[in-house]
Design a protein that fits this description.
Layout: E1 8-11, H1 15-27, E2 32-35, H2 38-48, E3 52-56, H3 64-72, E4 81-85, H4 89-95
Parallel strand pairs: 1-2, 1-3, 3-4
Helix pairs in contact: 1-4
Protein name: Response regulatory domain-containing protein
InterPro entries: CheY-like_superfamily (IPR011006), Sig_transdc_resp-reg_receiver (IPR001789)
Domain Response regulatory: 7-96
């Protein structure tokens, strides 16, 4: 874990995947915020500022490439690191 505690936002409409990732990251000591919708998640990224955005590639309200372009195209959020997740893969890989 890095010396600076980094805030992570999970944007995933799949509640089971969201909970698994949240539990895994919290157990590692990271502060985590969660959102089921792209709009709510991006408002958090823009208004609060986060270190990492875990973004589901399966968002129903926007295409993942459009979502990524929205984050990276905004001067206030362009420096936010983003990881795109496919359904179910992230938690399974993280558990080993």
């Amino acid at each position: 874990m890095p010396s600076k505690i980094e805030t992570i936002v999970i944007v995933d409409p799949d509640l089971a995947s969201q909970r698994q990732l949240e539990e895994l990251l919290r157990s590692a000591g990271y502060p985590v915020a969660v959102s089921e919708s792209q709009g709510e998640g991006f408002r958090f990224v823009r208004d609060v500022g986060v270190d990492l955005l875990l973004l589901s590639a399966d968002l129903s309200d926007v295409q993942c490439c459009d979502a990524l372009a929205e984050v990276k195209g905004n001067a206030a959020t362009a420096g936010t690191r983003v990881i795109l997740l496919t359904q179910g893969a992230a938690a399974a890989r993280a558990r080993g």
